Predict the structure.
Amino acid sequence: MSPTDRRIERRALLLDAAFELLGTEGSARTTVRAVCARARLNPRYFYESFTDLDELIVAVYDLLVDQLTEVVVTTMDIAPRDPRSQTRAAIEQIVGFVDEDRRRGRVLYVEALDNAALNRRRFETGHTLADIVALDAAARFGAPPEGEQIGRVGAAILVGGFSELLIGWLDGRIELTREQLVDDATALFLALGETAAAIAAGRADRVCAPDTGTDGTPKSTAQERGR
């Protein structure tokens, strides 16, 4: 192996070790010493790939996000194009991703609470996801009027609420089968999207409606009659 390939291999070993520690023992027990011991690498090799432990932990998180994104996008590409099928495909893949390896769910949704750098990355990712959801809703239900933020509000609720839902389901506080969780989340996602679109449309109609008098006649017409 070339020196470059060896560095790449060592970095992968460190990422694997950190993922295992974060996903099983938590961030408190994920230290440089522990990661190097699990990876069977001299600590000096740690710093050829990462400046500090936070950078490694965030890299683990980013790797999982990339893996999940690839799975979701690939599935949605082959799913039917109707909103329900697309929404269910995305939710089904996310739930499956964290359920089939519970370490993933712990790193993505739980350990950020104990690590400031990871928590910042989680917030950044959440905002990005909310933007994506808002854009997708606009494509499905029509672009909202300029300045209308209800789509962004709904997207923030969906992203944040879904994270809390997964945490509660993974730790057993929400007792549902995997299929029921996907069914319920899909129905609620679609309902919130439709409601947000209806709110935006209602506001647009009120803005465009003429100012009327008590008898329903536009005031401009009533004023003309009184002259």
Remarks:
- The chain has a mean pLDDT of 87.
- The CA atoms of residues 76 and 158 lie 18 Å apart.
- The radius of gyration is 24 Å.
